[in-house]
Amino acid sequence: MQRNATNSCQRIAMHRMDYHQLVKDCLKLKPEAQKMLYEHFATSMLGVCFRYTKSMTDAEEVLQEGFVKVFTRLNQFKGDGELGAWIRMIMVNTALTYLKTNKRYRHDLSFDEMPLHVVSTENPAVDLQAKELAELIRQLPTGFQTIFNLHAVEGYSHVEIASMLGINQGTSRSQYARARALLIEWVEKFSLKEKNGHYGTK
Amino acid sequence: MEQNNFEKDVRKKMDELRIPPSDFVWTNVEKRISKKKRDRRVIFMLLFLLLFITLGGYWLLSSGKNDWQQNQQISKVVKKDADSPVMQKRDSSSFSSTSNPGTIAVKHDSVYVTVKSVKGDSTNFKNDTVQKKIIATKKGESSSVNNETFSSAQKKKIDVEIVTDVRKKNNGDEQRNESGHQPNIREIQSGVANVKIKEGNIDSNEIARRKIGADTLLKKEEREKAVAQMDSAIKEMSKIRQKHKWILGFTFSAGASMLGENPFGIDKSAPSFSDYNNAVSSDPNSGSSIPSNSGSGISLPSAIRNSAAFMGGVYVEKNISSRNKISIGISYQYFSLLSKVGNTIDSIISSSSMSLSQSERFYESVNTVNTYRSHFHYLSIPVSIKFQLNKSETLPLYWQAGITISQLIGSNALQFKYSPGLYYSDNSLFHKTQVGLQTGVSFTLFAKGENPFSIGPYFSYNTSKLAGNGLYNHKHFSFIGIHSEILFRKK
Predict the structure, then answer these.
(1) Residue B291 above 60 pLDDT?
(2) Is B1 on the interface with A (CB under 8 A)?
(3) Element (DSSP H or E) covering residue A159
(4) Mean pLDDT within A96-105
(5) Alpha carbon distance A70, A68 (integer Å)
(6) Can you tell me the distance from the alpha carbon of B204 to that of B227, in angstroms, rounded to the nearest whole number?
(7) d(CA B216, CA B37)
(8) CA–CA separation, B148 and B161 (whole Å)
(9) How many Å separate Cα B33 from the centre of its chain?
(10) Which residues on chain B are in Cβ contact (under 8 Å) with A35?
């Protein structure tokens, strides 16, 4: 058991050291290192971008923009945290900027003042595949989708979200509550449909 | 606590989400990061160039200004001294004035000293030098003693040389004319020798005062003549001063606009999938990704071709030295590009994810039989410096370089949406403010007349990207053509 823990620690240390070297090489503008870094994080980061946008085209556009920022700002990475988390933060910020500046999303992202909504206490089990759940999140209206992603997935507080989006804390809470309720409803419907579908085939 | 289980589940599922991106994402990222490297180099070079131009301009301006002030000071002092009562008291029997315009001269029967403040040529302002001529004569018989042109750094040394030369040359005269003229020569020698030169700055007042103080008195009429000459010298100076004023002019250029990722707009081929990140065969409504380059259901935009462009405006120009000028103006720029589009679509069913409904016009991308001209209207402020390359006064050749800041005031350019294969207009994608560099050479005809006319080849390149997104993503505008200018100079 102790040996396993040691191995795990060594692996993590090795992993960090590799990242450290990779970042160093990227800072030296070595194309192989840049490609390696991209390949290592691209799939997971596209997942992040996918959740914030409405189409794959837009998600890839955000991914591209995000990686350009990653490579140009890599010197700002201190190395004290996880490289993945740092890149993810850049992707989220890039996605938010994209939503704010892009004509297609800008209008949908305007939040009207809404009364506070009580957060639903429903707590259904999520039996969906990651992609299916992401698709459902993307079906939410842009405002709901953004706030849900920021709070439920990224873990930002409503105070932080309010400052990021330039809205009231109450609006953020209200939108989140509505988004959550809507998503739970869809998850349940989708799960039921899936089950029925399975039974039907049987 | 129970409530958080849903969030935890969602977070866990989302962390598992992995979607492989299309190949062209990396191609575009790679292209852009390598471009940033190049851009950085270009920016450094531009900054260096700008610094060089600024320092050069400052140096030219300051040196021209100093000489102007210095010469004006000399003329004022000389005029003042000529009018002073001391001058009137002086014995005028042995003096006469020269008739050279712009020359302040006091002549003795054996020696006369001339301080030439302005070069005889009225078109040129003599920079950084004060020409000092000392001629020794023996009873009206002139012989050149020294004719020196000196800069501020050499002033002290040269003055000493002048004095020595005067002494050498006049030694013979002095001996020959011991009885009659010795005191005057000594007076002149001491007058010149006592000219105090401050380090790095000629004491112009002292030169003028000593020069006059060293001589004997003027005749009244000769004094008046001298004053008249002073006036003409001052007029000459004011003419020169006028040459350093801002002069209004008009400019017009005609040529071709070019669009590309480099200054010469070479990459004007039809856009490909790898060029545009929109070229993913995904339906924006469903959001499902089917990345492929097969082109099924995907249309590509037609090639964008270069077309006519022109610019015109007003500007003001000022001489910063005898051969260099600075100009600033305001002008209107028109660029156009051609592309092939299909038929006009009156309305489309707007989907939730594709808010194209704000566009007024739509065009098909199939059956591209119609030629569409995209117009770009800019209002710009060009600032440039002109350097005269030859020495000709009748047909000067100038090289000009400068920067232009322009603002997009209107455009009907079309954007392209790959998935439905539609052209639509969306000016919000354009970068409204553009910074450009310009250069050109031009010959000036009728350079000495009231309306000098310059014409020559001209090239400008907008260093700012035309758009950060869409069909014109990362493209830059260039212009190549013939540039003409006409000035309206007051006589």
Answers:
(1) no
(2) no
(3) helix A158-165
(4) 85
(5) 5
(6) 18
(7) 74
(8) 10
(9) 33
(10) 26, 30
Report pLDDT digits (tens) over B154-166: 444 444 444 444 4
Q: Cα(B326)–Cα(B341) distance, rounded to whole angstroms?
A: 45
Q: What is this model's ipTM?
A: 0.81
All residues of chain A having their beta carbon less than 8 Å from the beta carbon of residue B22 are: 60
Q: Which residue(s) pair with A5 in the sheet? A: none
Picking from A175-184, B127-136, B412-421, which range would have the lowest pLDDT averaged per residue?
B127-136
Two tokens at B447?
């350079």
Q: State the residue for tokens 């399975």.
A: A198
DSSP annotation of B467: B
Residue B129 corresponds to which tokens in the numbers above?
A: 């030098």
pLDDT in tens, B24-37: 899 999 888 887 76
Residue A87 tokens, joined: 């890149």
Residue B300 contacts residue B279 (beta carbons within 8 Å): yes
Tell if the pTM clears 0.90, that is, is over it.
no
Average pLDDT over residues B92-100: 41
A16-26 burial by CB neighbour count: b if 16+ within 10 A, else e?
eeebeebbebb
For chain B, say whether A69 makes contact (Cβ under 8 Å): no
**pLDDT-based confidence at B239, cuts 50/70/90?**
low
Contact B19, B289 (CB under 8 A): yes
User: Cα A184–A186–A187 angle (5° rounding)?
Assistant: 65
Per-residue confidence (pLDDT) for residue B25, from 0 to 100? 92
DSSP state of A149: I
Query: CA-CA distance, B137 to B11, in Å (whole number)?
Result: 105
CA distance readout (Å), A185 to A97, A128, A181, A189, B2: 29, 13, 6, 6, 17
- Structure confidence by residue, pLDDT tens digits, B108-135: 433 333 344 434 443 333 433 334 443 3
Q: Please list every residue in chain B whose beta carbon sits closer than 8 Å to the beta carbon of residue A153.
A: 10-11, 14
Closest CB to A152 among B10, B15, B29: B10
Do B239 and B475 meet the contact criterion of CB atoms below 8 Å apart? no
Question: Looking at CA atoms only, how far is residue B260 from chain A in angstroms?
Answer: 21
Segment B61-85 mean pLDDT: 57
Q: Which residues of B touch A143 (CB under 8 A)?
A: none
Residue A24 Cα, gap to closest chain B Cα (Å): 16
